[in-house]
Amino acid sequence: MNIKVVLVDDQALVRAGFRMVLDAQPDIDVVGEAADGAAAVELLGSVAADVVLMDVRMPGVDGVEATRLITARPGAPKVLILTTFDLDEYAFAALKAGASGFLLKDVPPSDLISAIRSVHAGDAVVAPSTTRRLLERFTAHLPGRTGPEPEALGKLTAREREVLIMVGRGMSNSEIADHLSLAEATVKTHLGRILTKLGVRDRAQAVVYTYETGLITPFGSHQPKG
Predict the structure, then answer these.
(1) Above 70 in pLDDT, residue 77?
(2) What number of CA atoms fall less than 13 Å from residue 24's CA on the CB side?
(3) CA–CA gap between residue 161 and residue 164 (Å, rounded)
């Protein structure tokens, strides 16, 4: 079955550009468009979609609130945030709200298509290294952890903790597998257990978790256990 995509952006030219690229793909169907968050939430109440490309800066209901409302529904589509990177301090909030990752608005067409297919297949974070750079920029104001370590982290094995830190640093499953001399399938198994133990939805939420708990600082290091 084709991947059903909804485009949400207040700029008609941006939506038209994305639609032109996506409609040319044999496995992707653009099933709807919305010019703001409120319209997107309403549209997705009646139109089934697999992936939503969501702008963050829109009048009225912005992309962060729309993402929160959409992902709270059962069987919600994956949301990819559209960001200009140098302006959108809302991208971190959007990841916290339930977005599965983000794309730059000037992303090359091939990367846009690859990102949609990847997220649809279950890979929650698009361009992990870029996600890390964005998180480092917009979480620099977060204080380091000064209190006890979160109880959930204590449930992780030493290997799972190691994998989580690498996920937070922006490493892909294949990079983690190479670094730890593991099969990529084993890394995926570890990640699945990590998500369950931490009570987070997907890889994007796990990355946010590492920063919010102080496991990883905005400058790329990680805190010692204890």
Answers:
(1) yes
(2) 9
(3) 5
Rounded Cα distance between 129 and 171, Å, is: 7
Give yes or no for a contact between 66 and 40, defined as CB atoms under 8 angstroms apart. yes
Q: Taking the CA of residue 138 as centre, how many other CA atoms within 13 Å lie in the half-sphere pointing to its CB?
A: 18
CB 156 within 8 A of CB 164: yes
**Is residue 70 within 8 Å of residue 77, measured between CB atoms?**
yes
93-148 pLDDT tens trace: 787 888 888 877 888 898 889 889 888 877 655 555 566 666 666 666 555 555 56
Q: Which amino acid appears at position 135 of this protein? A: L
CB 78 within 8 A of CB 52: yes
For the chain, the three-class secondary structure string (H helix, E strand, C coil) is: CCEEEEEECCCHHHHHHHHHHHHCCCCEEEEEEECCHHHHHHHCCCCCCCEEEEECCCCCCCHHHHHHHHHCCCCCCEEEEEECCCCCCHHHHHHHHCCCEEEECCCCHHHHHHHHHHHHCCCCCCCHHHHHHHHHHHCCCCCCCCCCCCHHHHHCCHHHHHHHHHHHCCCCHHHHHHHHCCCHHHHHHHHHHHHHHHCCCCHHHHHHHHHHCCCECCCCCECCCC
- Counted residue by residue, the chain has a size of 226
